[in-house]
Amino acid sequence: MSRSASGRSRRVAYMMSWFPAVTETFILYEILELERLGVHVEVFPLFGRHGTVKHPGANKLIARAHYRRMFSWALLSAQLYWLWHSPLRYLGAWWMALVGNWRSWGFLVRSLVVIPKAMLFAREMQRLQIEHIHAHWATHPTLAALVIQRMTGLNFSFTCHAHDLFIDRTMLDQKLAAASFAVTISEFNRKLLSDLYGEEAARKIIVVRCGVDQDIFRPRPRARTSQVPIILCVASLRDYKGHSHLIEACRQLKEAGTRFRCLLVGDGPLRRQLEAEAVAAGVRAEVEFLGSRRRNEVAALMARADVVVQPSVVASSGQMEGIPVSLMEALASEAPVVATRISAIPELIRDEETGLLVPEKDPRALCVALLRVLSDRNLAQRLGRNGRRWVLQHFNLRGNVVRLAESLAALPPASARPLETAEKPKARHTRGSRRAKPRVRSEKGV
Predict the structure, then answer these.
(1) Cβ burial, residue 165 (10 Å; 0-12/13-18/19+)
(2) Which among 164, 166, 144, 165 is positioned nearest to 156, based on CA atoms?
(3) Which secondary structure element, helix H or strand E, spans residue 250, and what is its range?
(4) Please, is 7 exposed, middle or buried when counting C-beta atoms within 10 Å of its C-beta (0-12, 13-18, 19+)?
(5) What is the 8-class DSSP label of residue 207?
(6) Domains and CATH numbers, the chain
(7) pTM of the model
(8) Scanning 27, 185, 212, 316, which has the fewest C-beta atoms within 10 Å of its C-beta?
(9) SS (H, E, C) 22-47
């Protein structure tokens, strides 16, 4: 699918903050699908691994991922190499990143880690003859890709999702200008970027939706497998996921005499707070915190669920959803879905057709919608059938990754600038002979 001019498989470097990350299965399965299509992917995590749960298929990528410690001879050696051979590029990259990030304290501090790692990765990409870089998230991974472009001449692209657009857009204009193309996951995000950065940026933006593997998430059993209905929520325990409103909706369900179990899959910084809220609401026996689970375990839970709920909100920080992959998985499983009407969620959940939408931060509306689905089997089945058809048509993993692979294949053949000849043994010169010009010009004094 993606081949260089020589006909061999194109070599692409994938950059992300953490790999694997339990909440970022979309990156893992995008890479696996790209490799199935013929793209050779090298994985470069900036900060290492995150979490202990490993999804199926991750091990073979973990085994060859380029994990590098911050304090190491290899990292120091890379800084010295670039400082000696390309001092203007090296110092210019530092200046670009520090000046570009000085208004954002968090980005500025992390750039002190990102830039040295990018210098090391730049050397490794030269050795591996990488032809293109693709970064996931428009924050630190794309900054690293921009630095590597400055040092090696490699082109890059990036995918932006949610917090990297909604909270802090530091240097995003520069990243868009330098990228070969930019991917975003929804029409909502594409319009936001176009409104912010104009027509020139808009021409570089393509929409490649996250997708779901229809072979893993299949239609659920028609018959209820439990006497007590199961409400399932798959989301990290963070403020913008809206779990507090779901707990209050559960209190109202219980007060109305409805029997149910509410299973919360995911972990995060709010776990203790949410457990305390469940106790205070009198629903601790009904609300179960299951922690992080593997994809196959989530698929099994989707098959048992009577309704899948996503009570997301726009947080005070501005953080909000892109399009939750867990909702795509629910629809692919033919589970009826209740979600909030924010951000790009309506592109997936079409109200009364592929699911039910309610206003954010409205536990009463959430409770009413859950009651409708739990009490009306015909409604639940209709939403489930429509939802699976919609996902297979618009949010299919293989179909969507094909578009990304085609965008990579359409790029002109490229590779990093060759390793500096100064690394190689220097030719001897006899008296009176002219010194041979190096194949790669030094930047000293330029």
Answers:
(1) buried
(2) 144
(3) helix 243-255
(4) exposed
(5) E
(6) 11-211+397-409 (3.40.50.2000), 230-394 (3.40.50.2000)
(7) 0.86
(8) 316
(9) CCCHHHHHHHHHHHHCCCEEEEEECC
